[in-house]
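tool_call: predict_structure(chain=1)
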Amino acid sequence: MYNKFMPRPQRIEYENAFYHVMNRGRGRQFIFHDEKYYYAFLDTLKEVHIRFDCIIHAYCLMGNHYHLLIETPHANLSRIMRHINGVYTQRYNRLKKTDGPLFRGRFKAILVDKDEYIMQLARYVHRNPIDMKKPLVENLNLYPWSSYRAYINKEKAPAWLYREFTYDVLGHNSRYKAYEKFVLQGNDSEIEKIYSRSNLPGVIGADEFKTWI
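tool_result:
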C-alpha cells in the first residue's frame, strides 16, 4: 500500500524517449501574467535545448499551466525539468517581486509512443486555448503563446523548435495548410477519453510499446 512516507516512483527515462510534460501553478495561480513572463519561459526553453540537447516538438503556455512535447536523446528529462521549473520560478519571482515556490509540485510527464501519437498529441497541445469552457481566443491562429502559429507559418519558428518530424508523419506537400486543417478537425475520441480522466496514464502507446516499456 502506498503512503506519503514511501519514495515517489522513479521516472522512466531512456535515450530518445518522448514525453508530454505538464505543470501548473500552486493552487491554480497564474504563472504567466503578461508577455514578460511568457518570454521569460520561452527563454528558458531555449536554454534547455542548448544545455541539455533536448528536442522540443511543441509547446503551449496557458495562464496557470503549460504543456510541452519533449524528446530526450540523452535520457535526462529530470534534469531538463529541474532547470525549466527552477529557473523560471526564479525569473517569475524577480518579475513579480516575490519569493517562494511557484508550481504545485512535481511535474506530470506522460511517456508517449512518438511514432503512433505525435500528431494527436501535438494537436491536443495546440488546441488548448480553444478547448476550454471559456476559450481564450475565437480563432486559434490568434493565440500567440504556443508553437501553433509557427507550425502553420504565421510566424517565424524559434531555432529550438523542431517541427520536421511532425510534418514527416503528416506526409503532405502543403505542410502548413495540411497541419492547420488537421488541428481544426478537433481531437480524436481516443485522446479525448485519455485526457478526460482524473488520473492520467503514465504511458500512451500501442500495446507493443507498453509491453516494451
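agent: Residues 17-205 form a domain with the Alpha-Beta Plaits fold (CATH 3.30.70.1290). Proceeding to next step.
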